[in-house]
Write a structure and sequence with these properties.
Helix content: 25-40%
CATH superfamily of one domain: Cysteine Rich Protein
Number of helices: 11
Mean pLDDT: 83
Bound molecules: zinc ion
Radius of gyration: 29 Å
Largest sheet: 3 strands, antiparallel
Shape: elongated
Strand content: 5-15%
Number of strands: 16
Distance between the termini: 99 Å
Order of helices and strands: HHHHHHHHEEEEEEEEHEEEEHEEEEH
CATH topology of one domain: Cysteine Rich Protein
Strand order of the largest sheet: 1-7-8
CATH class of one domain: Mainly Beta
Length: 393
Amino acid sequence: MDAPEIYQGHEIVRQEQNSKKKLAHEKGEGAPCLKCGPACEGLDLHFWRKICRLCHCKYEDHDVKDEDEMHHDIVLNLLKNRRPCTENANKPQVDLKSEPVIGEDVKANFIQVPECSSSAAMAKYLDSVPEDKAGHKGEAGQQYRSQQLSNQLPVHDFDDSYCDKLSDQERELMRAFNDKRDAEAAGQGNIKEKTEKELSSWVCEKCNENLYSGEVAVFAERAGKDKCWHPKCFVCDTCTELLVDLIYFFKDGKIHCGRHYGELTRVRCAACDELIFTKEYTQADGRDWHIKHFCCINCDTALAGKKYVSKEEKPYCMDCYDQLFAKCCQFCKIKIAADGKRVNYKDKHWHATDECFGCVNESCKKTMLGQQFIYKDGNVFCSPPCARKHLNK
Ligand SMILES: [Zn+2]
Ligand SMILES: [Zn+2]
Ligand SMILES: [Zn+2]
Ligand SMILES: [Zn+2]
Ligand SMILES: [Zn+2]
Ligand SMILES: [Zn+2]
Ligand SMILES: [Zn+2]
Ligand SMILES: [Zn+2]
């Protein structure tokens, strides 16, 4: 009779269930920033921006440990739901031998191990992708790979529970988009080695070079049964990165990563990084934004229809900009408002008034607005005599 132990067991199960799905803004809390190092105290995720509130770097720039696990679920679901494309539905996909090819060492390199014609072919494949890039070996490679997982397969493109408060209509549109993508475009490449017996010629879709017997190629069934790529050529048509774990999305004759497939038909919000499913959105700074997300990066005030300043591709409201960056007038030492008229010369700034941008010589004070002037040690003068008088004082 040990009732407490049963309760304990119950507790543990509940905790595991809870930790499975974290709230979006709790993801990776405290993870160190790979770009900023100690300057960032650890990821503090903004509730919809998906950037760190402390250092403003992206979520994936932080060394988030549970990221792989999250992607694991999403990608497995994706591949499970994928319907075979109709063209090949009745034919065997690739004439794969039944030889077992998956050792634990190989498994560790993939979320979902691609189909492969032999263990020798798998070994050749792993050897033919760059160590530091494809992430099949070594620490640098693994880090690159997990970054590419979040980059190429953004969780919020696949699972609406990671999106910021979608309306019912947005959710419906997103589901329709996802269903179409998963049913018509998503796939994982197969690895196949060209043997002596293989008489048809294999030509790489990317570089148009022939593949010879003994070489391995990646086949993508969505593109057609005979379409293949060199392992190093199996890249996203937009970002040209190697497709992580050979997961591709096929559209109009090209292969893409998940992120860039999405952007072929939808625009992406520059703030929250989600695809936009609302009817209306706003364009600013050459980028697209949810109207509700076009906000000051510093205080989150909505900026749609308001004045704002863009600095390093980030929008600021006028107040925050003044507070954080406004330059002082060289003459009166008072801050120049972001929308205030100013004169810039070298790295100095003045209010564009007769008072502030005038000959510094007390007895002259002539306005230099629109005039030729002499610049000396941060001062402006109308003429050499004025400059001389002032400097000899
Ligand atoms: Zn950072
Ligand atoms: Zn940070
Ligand atoms: Zn090629
Ligand atoms: Zn891409
Ligand atoms: Zn947004
Ligand atoms: Zn602000
Ligand atoms: Zn001034
Ligand atoms: Zn003067």
